[in-house]
Amino acid sequence: MFSKIKIFNGKIITPKSILENASLIVLDGKISGIEKGNPNISDALEIDAKGHYISPGFIDIHLHGGGGSDFMDGTPEAFLNIAETHAKYGTTAMFPTTLTTEPEDLVATIESFEIAKSRNTNGASLLGMHLEGPYFAINQKGAQNPRFIRNPEETEYKKLIKNYKSIKRWSAAPELPGAIEFGRFLVENNILPAIAHTDAIYEEAEEAFRNGYTLATHFYSAMLGVTRRNAYRYAGVVEAAYLIDDMDVEIIADGAHLPAPLLKLIYKIKGPNRTALITDAMRGAAMPEGKSLLGGYKNGVEVIVEDGVAKMTDRNSFAGSVATFDRLVRTMLTLAEVSLLDTITMASLTPARIMKVQDQKGSLEIGKDADIVIFDKDINIQMTMVEGRIIYQL
């Protein structure tokens, strides 16, 4: 790794504006300067951005796999392959995500993360684990394996949290017995509780928010909107997320999970500072379409990848995304008609803030990690840099 790098002749995307014909200086893996023009920097590796955009790297806070691997394969090699695969599409940091599974397989996955993190030099940074389940509403299981879905078990989650400091987020259904206490315990241990795969109505979601559930996992997917019970209408988690100003949402902006009107509505109400883009990608991301597997080889579910999305074999529901992050950005620009500046905020600074890493990552500012992506006007990735290391170059 070069200790000093100058990236020049680019359009630098800062938190508040896009600087034309500007240069970015990297020193020892950190951003040390942002200047207009092409300053003379002695003894620096010079990278010509060729008029393309110089952007903060994308931070994916919810993904399961890619490049033919799934985190639930439970091997360090799977983690490393996924991190390297997504780096080619602009992801510079990620929070690997689990699926509902047997307790011993969950432990194996977390331990694989910790091994992979220490060996990871060629992929997106592995910042921490996101446990998705198994504390879900069975009616909202989606593509999760129902065999392993259950209510929160205090002994189980306390042991996991005590043993593995790499757990940074846990998605659960907050209406389940014991789920509020579970959320409080997560907050006490600096872990983010998120609302997911839930039958909660507005009042339950509001109580959950007060007890730490400040993020709606893959917004609109596996959660209620307005519903009827005995002729009476009830607002759901969707309405709660809109009405509670400080609740964050993450969206699968692949153009399949959410159509253009919903993308525009979410942006209009929640805005770029409360909306994070996620791939929610499974092993079929960056792979040819056809048969695939959701989850690990041991307990995975066979799915079909077609039309740019993974579907259950009966084709009645989606089984996850196969998006890479460049596709999310492209979708927000073209389908949702959002500005590039706001789209990049949703791809970088907002997810960084949600996961409390905004002091180190998420924007091109002096002192922050040199997590940098160069892309052209069509969001084709030209270069990916993680903490000053060039890990992909076209």
Overall CATH architecture of the largest domain: Alpha-Beta Barrel
State mean pLDDT (0 to 100 scale): 97
Give the amount of beta strand, in percent: 25-35%
Low-confidence segments, ≥5 residues, pLDDT <50? none
Give me the CATH superfamily of the largest domain.
Metal-dependent hydrolases
Structural class: alpha/beta
**How many strands in all?**
25
What Rg, in angstroms, do the CA atoms define?
20 Å
Percent helix range: 25-40%
Distance linking N and C termini: 18 Å
| Overall body shape | globular
CATH first level of the largest domain: Alpha Beta
Count the DSSP helices: 10
Q: Using the coordinates shown, work out and report the CATH topology of the largest domain.
A: TIM Barrel
Number of domains: 2
Largest sheet, in brief, is: 8 strands, mixed
Outline the structure in words:
The chain has helices spanning 76-87, 103-119, 154-163, 179-188, 202-210, 237-243, 260-270, 325-334, 340-347, 349-354, and strands spanning 4-13, 18-27, 30-36, 45-48, 53-56, 58-63, 65-66, 69-70, 91-96, 125-126, 129-132, 167-172, 192-195, 215-216, 227-229, 232-234, 248-252, 275-278, 290-294, 301-306, 309-312, 318-321, 372-375, 381-386, 389-393. By secondary structure, the protein is an alpha/beta fold. It has two domains: 4-54 and 375-393, Roll (Urease, subunit C, domain 1); 57-361, Metal-dependent hydrolases (TIM Barrel), CATH 3.20.20.140. The strands form six sheets. Strands 1, 2, 3, 4, 5, 23, 24 and 25 form an eight-stranded mixed β-sheet that branches. A six-stranded parallel β-sheet has the order 11-12-13-14-17-18. A four-stranded antiparallel β-sheet has the order 19-20-21-22, with no helix packed on it. The longest helix is centred in the N-terminal third of the chain and has 17 residues, at 103-119. The mean pLDDT is 97.
